[in-house]
Design goal:
2 copies of one chain form a homodimer. Chain A is an alpha/beta fold and about 250 residues long. Helix content of chain A is about 35%, strand content about 20%. In chain A, the strands form 2 sheets. Chain A has a 6-stranded parallel beta sheet with strand order 7-6-5-9-8-10. A 4-stranded mixed beta sheet of chain A has the order 1-4-2-3, sandwiched between helices. In chain A, helix 6 links the parallel strand 5 and strand 6. In chain A, helix 1 runs parallel beside helix 3 and helix 6 runs parallel beside helix 10. At the A-B interface, helix 6 and helix 10 of A face helix 6 and helix 10 of B.
Amino acid sequence: VHLPITSRDNQWFRRFREAAAAHRDEIVLEGPKQIRDAIAAGWLPIAVAVEEQSEQAAGVSATEVTFAHSLFRALSDTVHSQGVLALFHRPSSRLLDLFSGAGLVVALDAVQDPGNVGTICRLAAAFGAAGVALTEGCADPFAPKAIRASAGAILRIGVVRTTRRELIAAASERRVPIFAAASSGDSDRPVPVSPAVLVLGSEGEGVSQEILDHSEQIAIATAGTIESLNVGSAAAILLARWFEQRRG
Amino acid sequence: VHLPITSRDNQWFRRFREAAAAHRDEIVLEGPKQIRDAIAAGWLPIAVAVEEQSEQAAGVSATEVTFAHSLFRALSDTVHSQGVLALFHRPSSRLLDLFSGAGLVVALDAVQDPGNVGTICRLAAAFGAAGVALTEGCADPFAPKAIRASAGAILRIGVVRTTRRELIAAASERRVPIFAAASSGDSDRPVPVSPAVLVLGSEGEGVSQEILDHSEQIAIATAGTIESLNVGSAAAILLARWFEQRRG
């Protein structure tokens, strides 16, 4: 019989808590489906945590710890986790990996909402983009809310935290054009099927001037009654359009 | 000097609380921008509530009440409301109004997440749809989270709660074809520019069989690595495609 851990000083509790909150080298996945998907995608769990009296069997060959209810709930709500969490190393892709396949690199410029980051990672995976690059000021793509919004897609595509400067340099070095979604852009210009970077900005600010200075701007035509689209909606429309053109 | 209301038995407190929680005949809008937008769109406030010591001046000709902090926070968080709320009559459009303009009626079938409902109302407004019809089981479009996700668009387009049965009857009576987004559909079929209903279903269940039985199905082609798109993403792609065709 496992006695549940009840102390907030316990090393595992502290490690899970830090991973869930601090966005550092380890991340926490919630619930049996996310954990199974990650393992299926080749990830190796460091440890699995089960809530006291939960009926979850982790079924994973990793260190297993049992937390008392109060501790478990400090890490995750029961609805999302269904009584099981797992600790993983944060995946580390490099920016140049995204450019290696001559596909479309989706870049997010200071998109702060983790739900939007997750939604766009899901779209990037659905439409076969090469991966997602996140500049300064973006939400952590491995925050629980972002992973949920990605419906697990984030576990299967390359996601890289970078800077505007590195992104511009990487594209320039490989002569890959940058396209920025901006309401002042040309709404009839498609994202080219050849290698390209597609940048989406934050809802309030749009794409930063630093990136606009190195980009061609594309817009989405609307009926003109609303100022702007949600960044997730804009990504959906531009990625679907790119995918259709690629299919020919 | 206004003395702030401190009693939870106060009639105004109870009325705001019921409107915020119970999804009945009155609704609550949060924050100066939402309230200004609603008034600009022709809505008349019943009353305005200000948080004690808030620097908000409502600037609206309606009954004004001041709530103590604790009461105000029971109605809305301070971040979203910025210290001011207003009570309005729930707008009442009729299903037949949506069909009167020979445009595109967007219908949501049991879409439970208020964020998705709001996002799709925003898209419907952005692309000039005739309005949004919600079947049984949809989230309340005038819940605070839905209004926020709509970025206020919900205040400017017709939104109607209806039933699958009424929707099918209204379309059939006017010989307006129904198109349902479904992964088994034809990914090359566009939504026609002539009057039509476009139905999007819940993420888990898709469009109900009852509606599918009266619909042609359209799908969105993807790279095939992910099971489905978020319903907000699907709506963005199909509405943008419809709008582009209409522009010609």
